């Protein structure tokens, strides 16, 4: 997969991620949120290793509510 396609997939994952999963009382939502965040971290690291650290960090900051 090329980096541009990976960046598109990364942005889709960021958009669909439940950023407030840690506050859920339902263990299923919490587990799904953990799995989704793990995918985000792995994809972020892959993009960084491919030389797209700045672009992936910019996207992350755009969607992460801090």
Radius of gyration: 12 Å
- Overall domain count: 1
- The shape, in one word, is elongated
- Weakly predicted, low-confidence segments: none
Topology order in helix (H) and strand (E) letters:
HHH
Strand fraction: under 5%
Quote the average pLDDT. 96
Largest sheet: none
C-alpha termini separation: 30 Å
Figure out the total of helices: 3
Give the beta-strand count: 0
How helix-rich are the residues, as a percent range? over 70%
Secondary-structure-based class equals mainly alpha
Describe the structure.
With 66 residues, the chain is mainly α. It is built from three helices and no strands. It has helices at 3-16, 27-49, 53-63. The termini are far apart. 8% of the residues are buried. The model has no long low-confidence stretch (mean pLDDT 96).
Brief synopsis:
The chain is mostly helical. Helix content is 73%, strand content 0%.
Task: Summarize this structure as a short list of keywords or feature phrases.
mainly alpha; 66 residues; elongated; 3 helices
């Amino acid at each position: 997969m090329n980096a541009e396609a990976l960046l598109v997939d990364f942005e889709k994952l960021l958009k669909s991620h439940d950023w407030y999963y840690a506050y859920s009382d339902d263990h299923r939502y919490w587990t799904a949120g953990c799995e989704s965040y793990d995918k985000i971290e792995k994809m972020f690291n892959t993009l960084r290793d491919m030389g797209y650290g700045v672009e992936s960090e910019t996207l992350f900051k755009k969607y992460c509510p801090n």
